[in-house]
Amino acid sequence: MRVGYYQYRPQFGKVSHNLNKVVKKLGSAAADLIVLPELAFTGYYFRNKAEVKALAEDPGRSVTVDTLTALCKKQNFRIVTGFTEKARDKYFNSALLIGPRGVEHVYRKLHLFNEEKKWFDEGNIPLQVNRIGPVRIGIMVCFDWVFPEVTRTLALQGADIICHPSNLVLGYCQQTMLTRCLENKVYAITTNRFGYDNRPQGNLRFTGRSQIVAPGGTLIHRAASQREELFIMDIDPRLARDKSITPHNEVLRDRRPEYYKALTQKKGK
Amino acid sequence: MRVGYYQYRPQFGKVSHNLNKVVKKLGSAAADLIVLPELAFTGYYFRNKAEVKALAEDPGRSVTVDTLTALCKKQNFRIVTGFTEKARDKYFNSALLIGPRGVEHVYRKLHLFNEEKKWFDEGNIPLQVNRIGPVRIGIMVCFDWVFPEVTRTLALQGADIICHPSNLVLGYCQQTMLTRCLENKVYAITTNRFGYDNRPQGNLRFTGRSQIVAPGGTLIHRAASQREELFIMDIDPRLARDKSITPHNEVLRDRRPEYYKALTQKKGK
């Protein structure tokens, strides 16, 4: 299975410019699955909710989605991409799984980062694994990495590959994703953007270093911090079905869920 | 609060020798809490269950526990130590919290590592946080580190410091504990042994590198791989009460437990 990421630098607010850039770059890519960054076409650093409203799209009638669907059809691959989603009167920091026949899944970021809480609504769709042939992929977005529950939930649902569109500004995530892949024995493709969003309210710098990590936590490839890169490689997703960590231990089967009840209790106090 | 670890090399089967070593070393230590390795007095690499039976002690009538209690009383500190526990007809890889008045808590390892499954029974006591004055400590043992649910459960119960007696043979744990302290914003004291258990069935080498990690995932101190070290330092446990990771995010409060239900579902299939 050929998987990859495209690390680039969206320009804030220039949706069609960013879309053209992606279409041009991926227009000759041979792959099965390519992961793009979070909020891949609008840019990230919104000034307020009004800016989100002006740029968000309903995936059901979106030029961006239609264009990406056509690209998937032409190249016969799938894309997981960050997407600034409008859904009636709500706005989500979402990720779409898009294939040759259109959107196959919408994931809405469950854990909003910092000022995103002002701009977006909290995700309201359960974590779910989707199939690409025999391979199962799970989707999470950027700051979800802090919460081990996310990758774990996807792994328990059978995810072989975690697709992880990101706009990272902190520096911890890349290393932490090695832990996620070790403790769940899954692949993870973290696609980060680079460059700045230079906005009236300030500048935000993104840290690049997109990466692909193998089950067991081995870093296979990592991009530079501030350089565009389309990287595609062959992986064997079946390796993610081997959950053993010793001859007598498997990372999922050895769990003791009856002792983890605090994890699903409603927040109190 | 003065906390520390004693990284040493128990000799297999020589309980009183190992106990004397610890008593001598800690007999003049000024501290509030000292963490010892897993199975700190018996050694680790059992040949079979009969060897466990021969060496395990019931904490209620144990020379080891009585001696450590006297040490805690003399020095006015507490010890968290790995302990080869007999409980009626069961045998556990346990950790004891011992203070000047005796055993304050027994934790029984929930996730047995590799051949331990042949020697020990699985832990059957819920994860629980214990107080040392205003400070809350959580206990886990060695391989529990692989399962993010363990540290998370203790953090949700309010643990400020994770005490982590270990006999590590793999090399991943120390780095992963940085992730555990980042994602939960707790301290962790991982006390590992070093040296070999040279046994008829083979030799097992332990990796040392005991460490203290601060909330946020900062490594404060790490021992060498193969050298004895008693290390004690001042920490401010109140830092573990600050769960913020950005001005708008806290690692526990931002959890979305209603989306984590898979984590506590019974194993199926």
Strand segment tally of chain A: 16
What fold name goes in the CATH topology slot of chain A?
Nitrilase/N-carbamoyl-D-aminoacid amidohydrolase
The separation of the N and C termini of chain A measures: 47 Å
The proportion of strand residues of chain A reads 25-35%
Largest interface: A-B, 48 and 48 residues
Please estimate the helix content of chain A: 10-25%
Please tally the helical runs of chain A, counting DSSP H or I stretches of 4 or more residues. Answer: 6
CATH class of chain A: Alpha Beta
Major beta sheet summary of chain A:
6 strands, mixed
Name the shape of chain A in a single word. globular
| CATH superfamily grouping of chain A | Carbon-nitrogen hydrolase
**Strand neighbour order, sheet with most strands of chain A:** 5-4-3-2-1-14
Offer a quick outline of the entry.
The structure is a homodimer of 269-residue chains. Chain A is an alpha/beta fold and 269 residues long.
Describe the structure.
The structure is a homodimer of 269-residue chains. Chain A is α/β, with parallel strands linked by helices and 269 residues long. Chain A has a single domain, classed as 4-Layer Sandwich (Nitrilase/N-carbamoyl-D-aminoacid amidohydrolase), CATH 3.60.110.10. The first copy, chain A, has 6 helices and 16 strands. Chain A has a 6-stranded mixed sheet. In chain A, strands 6-7-8-9-12-13 form a 6-stranded mixed sheet, covered by helices on one side. A two-stranded antiparallel sheet of chain A has the order 10-11. In chain A, helix 1 packs parallel to helix 3. The longest helix of chain A is centred in the N-terminal third of the chain and has 13 residues. Chain A starts with a strand and ends in a 19-residue tail after the last strand.
